[in-house]
Each structure stands twice: as C-alpha cells, then as structure tokens.
Design brief:
The chain is an alpha+beta fold and about 700 residues long. It is built from 31 helices and 18 strands. The strands form 4 sheets. It has a 9-stranded mixed sheet with strand order 12-11-10-9-8-16-15-13-14. Strands 6-5-7-18-17 form a 5-stranded mixed sheet, sandwiched between helices. A two-stranded antiparallel ribbon has the order 1-2. Helix 3 packs across helix 4.
C-alpha cells in the first residue's frame, strides 16, 4: 500500500484535526464534573491523581523560592520545573494549569504517530492511528484532564525518539542525528524510568543494522549519538560532547569506517564506565524478587514488601490487556495483524519492537506498561484499515469502509471515557480541613497519615510527612502502620521517635543511620527488636520534642485498614505474619426489631453475631451518631467481657464495624470512630464526620 506524500499544509491540517479531537474527548470529564461543588477548590476542579500533588508541591516550592529540608519536595523534578515555568508566563491560576496540562501535553502523542506515518508517505494511516492512539483506553486513563503526572509525556517523548531514528535512517543526513540525541536526552530527563527503554532502542538499532544494513556507516553514527545521550554524565558536559562530535562529523564528511567504529567503541565504554547498565540491573532485580512477601534489610529485620500491595504491579487478564491497548479483543487482534503486516512491508518498523515489547510485558508485569504499545498498535490498525481498503475499487465504498472501520475502533474507547467518571483525590470538605491545618501547623511540623495521602497533605497543609508516594518501603511504612493500628500509647511513642530521629539525622551526619526501630534499639540499649516493640506499649523517656505532630485520620482510610495492617502485623525477626485481625465493614440492608440484617450475610441479634449457623458473642456494642452540629454522641453496651469481638454501629453511615480487640483499641478506631482519645497523649484539633486531626502532646 502506497500513496503520494501529502503537502506540508495538508499534513499539518490532519495533525491539528487529530490533536483537536484528542483535546475534545478529554473535556468530557470536565463537562461531567464542572458543576460538582465538592470537587472544586479555589474556583477550579481539583486533580484526580495522588502523585500529582507531589509534583504540584515541587512546583509551588520553586515558585516560593525554596522548601524545608527533608520534606521530600519534588523541587528538582522535570514536571515541577516545567509547571513552575508555565505558571510564571501564563495568565492562569496554578490550579488551572495543573488541571489542564495533561490534556494539552498528553494529546501531543498524535504528532509522533503521524510523523512516523509520514516517513513512509502514509499520512492517512497516521491520521487513523492518531485518532485512536490519542484516546486509547489506557493512554487516556493516564493523560486525562486532571491526571497531573509525568505520564503526560512519558510515551510522547520515546515515540518522538523512535520517529527521529527512523527519519534519520531514511534521510541519511547528519543534521537529523541531533534530533535523535535531543529527544532521547529530553525523554530521560523527563522520566528517567524510560532509560531502559532508550537503551533497548539503541540495542535494536545495532541489531537491525548488523542484520540488514551492516555496511551503512551512517547507522553507526546514529548509534554513537544515542549512546552519548544515554551516558550517565553531567547534562551540560553531555550536550557539549554531542555538539562537538556533531561538528566533527559535519566537517569530516569522509571519515573512514574504522574511525567511526573506534568512536562507537568509546561510546560503549562510556556507557559501561558511567554505570549506564545499573538502572536496568536494578529494575530486573526488582522484578525478579518482587514476589517476596517480605525482605530483610541490612540489620536483618524482615519488613513487608510494598510491591505486593500495588495493583499496577500484578498480572492482568488478557481481556483487560486488550481493552487498555486497543479497546477490546477484536481491535487488539486486528492491531497485531496490522503490525505484522507493517513489519513485512516496512521492516524499518522493527525499530518499534522495544515499545511494543514493553507494552506486552503488562501481561505479567502490571497494567501500567500497556500504554507503551498504544502508539505503534494504533498506527498498525490504521495501516490494516487502509491496506484492506485498497481491495475496494469503488471510491465511495472505499471511503465508507475507512470511515466505518475508524468509527468502530474509536467507539469502545469513547464509551470507556464517558463511563470513566474518576473523582478528584480529595473533596472540598477534606481540603477545607487541610487548609485549616495549614493555618495551625508550622512548615516544620509532621502529619502522620498513610502514604496515599502524603502528597495531598503536603500540598494543601505545607507540612512534612513520614511517608508518601515515593517513600513507602516496608521499613518506612512500619512505623505509620504501627502508630495507626496499635494502641494510643504505642502509636504516640513510635510517631515521636520516628519524627525526632529523622530530624536529628538531617542535622547530624554522624547520627546512626537505619530505621526508627534500629535507632531506637541502640538509643535504649535493647538488642531484641520484639522486646523494643513491646516497650512502646508503656510510657518511655522520649527524645526532646522539637516540633508538633498531627495524626490525620480520614473516613476513607477505613477502606484500606487491612492493607495498612500488613506492614506492622509481623515478626520482624522472621518475617512471619501474625494472625490477621478481624475487621469487617457491612451495610445494614434491613432491620426487624433489634435484629440487623447486614449485606455480608451476617445478622446482629441482641448481644450476638449470627454468621451462618455460628453464634458469636459480642464484648461491646457501640452506637455512634452525629447531631446537626457535627458533634459525636456514643452509646456503649457492655455485653460479654470474655469475648474478643466488638461491634460499632455508625448510624450516620448506616454501617457496622465488626472488630477484634486489637483493632478496636487501635489509635485509628479510638480517635476517628469513637473520639476516645487519651488526654495525656492527644488533643483534638479538627473534628468532622469525614476527617479528624489530632495533635500529639508528647
């Protein structure tokens, strides 16, 4: 299938049409939620991804001229730098910029898709591919309006790198080699995790050249510039080297092949010397050992592995895989057929294998990888549609076939987008709490909360957190899990220790490194970690208080309490998990007198729980209810003191909590659900039915 190359003007028109289509589809989410007041703050919709608040915090700190030492601000991240720059030059609010950046940046994927098609004079193929690629299921999910994250360019830049390689190989002009280096450097600066992909691209270029074009010296030049772009040296030195070598090649047009080979060898050596293979080795090790339920640190303590709790890191069914790449099984199969046909007709597209291969890793490596295959397979199904159309002689029928086929592959993805009503990370009520906390807390104060809430808390309250989306290893999570789901005394002790040890380590380079438990064992002279953990249940002499600590306790955290508990409910010496606690939430579906029928099949009958044929006695039955002023009232019935089971009926939520004694006595349940705080340890700071903040007094 061939066609005459379109004029530059007509090509630009097609690119603009594809780009506007991608933009328009991304406004659907805004239209659906623009008038939902609970999703708005500062007269703008809030973003819908937790990690986005990390970059927003970094951009904010850049604009403010600095940040607090040890606060984890992303002040050096590429997205934060670009965002701060845009905030300085554009006449829009900061909230508007971070909301719409993924819309405008993510839609740029249509450009490399169409440029790759133009390389082989098949722009209409590229147009169909761009329409699909710009809104494909998984790609849309990670670049939709409000999904403020590096994903907005993570696929765009490698796709531009691939196009520049293909373009340079076909045109065979030195000046185009600079494009390869430019996009490769930019891609890895924007998202360093793309480094492995970039290196694999260089490997495929080498293999392709050795098999199909080994005498073509120009291809080795391209490879040299790719390797220079990937070398782990200072960016300014890298740019100088690339420009100097480009100038050398421009002046010396007739270099002997042995000189080119020598420079290539030096480039390979530069990669090895500067640790260019380390990122790949580390990533491979991470995936090889990710199935371990717990891992031992240098001190021999076995912490729970966070990878086991990350949904994106698991295997996915083929149907999900197909949906996310092409919108369905049929579309994916057709895309693969189109890709094979494209490879057969234009072998230069073999250079796309790293992108497609990385996308297929998603079948066992996690759904986040599917986006890498989107641009190439979108282009491939466009190629198949146009190829099949050539067998239709009548022009009207041929155009009808192309139009209907294109619409058919777009509809499933658009249907997904219409139904993909993702809420904002926080609602207005929650942000009001954090905004109030900002006025009460210092920038040096800490907030104890699960890592999911770390970035948003830091963005809205401008405080520090112990864990967040980047700092949530098993050892880091341990203290927060322990603080939230053990008794108030233990929670208060470990929170104070963790905060003060972290701050001391920031100021004193000689302070013993390690986790809070390792530092604590050394400070208190306890050699057995389990003995030290047990000591936290009683009053101990704590380090001098240097800053305030707040416990952030939202209702939403209840959804993930069993997951949170995994990190501290284990024997650190062996890694063996302790018995899983009883924690069950159920809604009331009907009542008959004093009998509550729950949606989990259980019944609460007087002082007992009926589950199937089993009758389980209840220790305490607690009813909580908020009045019109938001004040919590409780009624407690002591029933069977020998039972380990406690029941809480949260009347306002129409929910029952069925808990064992440890979880019932945990800091989270006692403070958030019951507001039973130890006045020696905590004082209430902000109390609402949905979010509560307590200040640590010790």
């Amino acid at each position: 299938m061939t066609n005459q190359k379109l004029s530059t003007k007509n090509f630009i028109i097609l690119v603009l049409l594809a780009y506007l289509f991608s933009l328009s589809v991304r406004t659907i989410w805004v239209y659906q939620f623009h008038d939902v007041e609970q999703f708005r703050w500062n007269n703008q919709l809030m973003i819908n991804t937790n990690d986005g608040y990390g970059y927003a915090e970094g951009a904010r700190d850049i604009l403010n001229g600095g940040h607090q030492k040890g606060d984890g601000s992303f002040i050096d991240s590429s997205l934060a730098i670009v965002t701060a720059f845009l905030a300085k030059i554009l006449p829009f609010s900061f909230e508007t910029i971070i909301l719409w950046m993924p819309t405008f940046f993510g839609s740029l994927l249509v450009i490399p898709i169409m440029l790759m098609a133009r390389v082989l004079s098949m722009e209409y193929v590229g147009f169909i591919g761009a329409l699909l690629g710009g809104i494909a299921w998984s790609y849309y999910n990670r670049t939709m309006t409000g999904y403020y994250d590096t994903d907005m360019l993570t696929i765009v830049l490698p796709s531009l790198t691939l196009w520049s390689i293909m373009f340079a190989m076909i045109e065979k002009r030195n000046r185009y080699i600079l494009l390869v280096s430019f996009f490769m450097v930019l891609s890895n600066w924007w998202y360093f995790q793309n480094y492995s992909l970039s290196l694999s691209m260089a490997g495929v270029v080498l293999i392709y050249t050795l098999i199909f074009d080994r005498k073509n010296i120009f291809n080795y030049k391209i490879l040299i510039f790719m390797l220079l772009a990937l070398s782990q040296i200072d960016l300014s030195i890298k740019i100088v080297l690339i420009l100097a070598l480009f100038g050398f090649f421009h002046i010396k047009q007739d270099l002997e092949s042995k000189v080119i080979y020598a420079i290539l060898a030096i480039s390979v050596l530069l990669i090895l010397i500067t640790g260019g293979l380390d990122p790949i080795i580390n990533r491979v090790n991470g995936y090889l050992f990710r199935d371990s339920s717990n891992i031992a640190n240098e001190a021999g303590l076995h912490y729970y592995s966070v990878v086991k709790t990350v949904r994106e890191a698991g295997e996915i069914p083929f149907q999900v895989f197909a949906n996310r790449i092409s919108g369905g099984r049929v579309a994916l199969i057709l895309s693969i057929i189109g890709y094979l046909l494209l490879l057969f007709k234009h072998r230069i597209f073999l250079l796309s294998l790293p992108l497609v291969g990385l996308g297929f890793i998603a079948l066992w490596g996690g759904l986040r990888f599917t986006v890498y295959a989107v641009p190439i397979l979108a282009l491939s199904i466009g190629y198949l549609i146009m190829y099949l159309s050539t067998f239709i002689e009548k022009k009207e029928l041929r155009l009808g076939f192309i139009a209907i086929s294109t619409i058919a592959i777009l509809i499933p993805n658009i249907e997904h987008i219409v139904g993909y009503k993702v809420p904002t990370v926080f609602n207005k009520q929650t942000v009001e709490v954090l905004d109030k906390l900002k006025k009460l807390a210092s920038r040096e104060d800490y907030v104890v909360a699960w890592w999911d809430y770390g970035y948003p808390i830091r963005y809205y309250s401008d405080v520090k957190t112990l864990i967040d989306g980047a700092r949530h290893s098993g050892s880091a999570n341990y203290s927060v899990s322990f603080a939230l789901l053990h008794n108030q005394r233990a929670g208060a002790n470990i929170a104070r220790l963790d905060v003060e040890y972290k701050e001391r380590a920031l100021k004193d380079s000689n302070f013993t490194a390690g986790t809070v438990l390792e530092r604590g064992m050394k400070e208190y002279g306890i050699k057995n970690v389990n003995e030290f953990i047990a000591s936290l249940n009683s009053p101990i002499k704590l380090p001098k208080k240097t800053r305030d600590i707040y416990f952030y306790l939202p209702l939403k955290m209840m959804n993930i309490l069993p997951t949170i508990d995994l990190f501290a409910n284990l024997n650190l010496l062996t890694g063996k998990k302790y018995k899983s606690p009883l924690f069950s939430r159920a809604n009331v579906i009907s009542t008959q007198g004093n009998i509550f029928h729950l949606n989990n099949g259980m019944q609460i009958i007087g002082g007992n729980i009926k589950s199937g044929n089993n009758i389980i006695p209840i220790n305490q039955f607690v009813v909580t209810e908020y009045d019109n002023k938001g004040i919590l009232h409780k009624r407690v019935r002591h029933l069977n003191v020998g039972s380990n089971i406690f029941v809480i009926y949260m009347r306002n939520y129409n929910q029952f909590l069925i808990l064992d004694k440890r979880i019932f006595n945990s800091t989270y349940i006692q403070l958030f659900v019951l507001e039973n705080y130890d006045p020696e340890l905590f004082e209430p700071t902000i109390l609402t039915p949905f979010t509560k903040v307590f200040k640590l007094k010790v």
